[in-house]
Write a structure and sequence with these properties.
This protein is α+β, with helices and mostly antiparallel strands and 375 residues long. It has a domain at 226-375. It is 32% helix and 8% strand. It is built from 15 helices and 12 strands.
Length: 375
């Protein structure tokens, strides 16, 4: 038998040749085993926290959740795996909803836990409302922004003993309870011309936005500001291609979360609001090394918050100059003509037509101009 370029060997010679080949390959494999083992050791699993900065920061704090040592899949499914992602039962791709996912390690019937929680029905609560599930500088993984009564473990300042396994407050509503300490907010609501609709319509709405126990965010917010607001106001941006940058970061750059003397709870009248960023302060916002205070101190923008901000060069009184020098930017309603403000031409939150967010939802301004100037 012959292969291309090779002649058939006699049987004894073939046997010796095969034996020699086996010995040679065995020695090669043996020599390569340490290198292969070393290479295998160097192959590390995907490090989730490389993409999740806040979690990486939490994990670096003084107290680290032991579950982190077991890997992210101790509590979460791999969201890059489509099948696994579909099997997630809780928010953030948790393997189960809270508190069930926590109950996998912590016995909610344990006496020590029951005593620590003063007999309150924590077994049906979201544990992350008080504890950071990854890491904290506080004992017991308590979130950084702890509400004063909770931080002092003064549960009875807000709660009565539970009844039928449910929380009982010391007041008839959360608003009344909160205003007991936050009288300044109640006073502001009473004096303001406009109030946040949620606060006017629901006496238990404080806890919709604020966690009454602890949170990782300023003012004890349950979620980042933009995410919190969009839970009710998603219609302003849904399906829109271009979104005003403050909307994606913090609605409170333009709106007061509770009440205001201006419509839509803004910090100032429409044009004053827009020109707060797009007027004389623009250069300072874009280039300044320090935070910028706006609207009489109601807002403090971080240094270089909006580096791509456009600056409108207007007349000294701010009434003329955009989009060309003599074009009115501001004018009262007169002779059947509507009032002119920035909102006459631009949408304040989001649009599809162009990044200029024209009210006509068009890329060009032709249709917009014709509305006032005719054909």
């Amino acid at each position: 038998m012959t292969w291309l370029g090779y002649r058939k060997l006699p049987v004894p010679a073939l046997g010796c040749t095969i034996l020699a080949a086996i010995c040679f390959l065995s020695s090669v494999c043996a020599a390569q085993q340490p290198a292969a083992a070393e290479a295998k050791t160097e192959q590390k699993p995907v490090d989730c926290i490389k993409c999740h900065g806040p979690i990486a920061a939490a994990a670096a704090r003084k107290v680290k959740h032991p579950a982190m040592e077991g890997g992210c899949d101790s509590c979460h499914v791999n969201h890059r795996d489509q099948k696994a992602r579909a099997e997630a039962k809780g928010d953030h791709y948790l393997t189960d909803k809270q508190p069930a996912v926590c109950g996998g390690c912590h016995d909610v019937a344990e006496k020590k836990l029951l005593d620590t929680h003063k007999g309150q029905p924590f077994a049906t609560a979201e544990c992350s409302g008080c504890h950071n599930p990854h890491g904290s500088d506080q004992p017991k993984l308590i979130a950084e922004m702890a509400h004063s009564p909770f931080d002092a473990r003064a549960c009875d300042s807000c709660h009565k003993p539970p009844k039928d396994g449910k929380v009982v407050l010391n007041e008839s509503s959360t608003s009344k309870l909160c205003f007991g300490c936050h009288a300044d907010v109640e006073e502001r609501l009473k004096k303001a011309k406009f109030q946040h609709t949620l606060l006017k319509s629901d006496d238990n709405s404080c806890a919709d936005c604020h966690d009454p126990h602890a949170s990782g965010r300023k003012f004890g917010l349950r979620k980042p500001v933009a995410e919190l607001c969009s839970a009710c106001h998603s219609d302003l941006t849904d399906g829109k291609k271009f979104v005003h940058k403050p909307v994606t970061e913090s609605c409170t750059a333009c709106h007061n979360a509770h009440a205001s003397d201006f419509e839509k709870n803004t910090h100032a009248a429409v044009n004053d609001l827009c020109l707060g960023c797009h007027g004389p302060s623009a250069l300072k916002i874009v280039q300044g090394p320090e935070p910028v205070s706006l609207f009489g101190g109601k807002v403090a923008l971080p240094a270089k918050a909006y580096e791509d901000l456009s600056w409108l060069q207007l007349s000294n009184d701010g009434k003329l100059g955009h989009p060309y020098p003599q074009h009115p930017v501001s004018a009262p309603a007169s002779e059947g003509k509507a009032e002119i403000t920035c909102l006459s031409c631009h949408k304040p939150h989001a649009a599809n037509g162009s990044a200029k967010m024209l009210v006509t939802e068009t890329a060009r301004a032709d249709k917009l101009c014709i509305r006032c100037h005719g054909k």
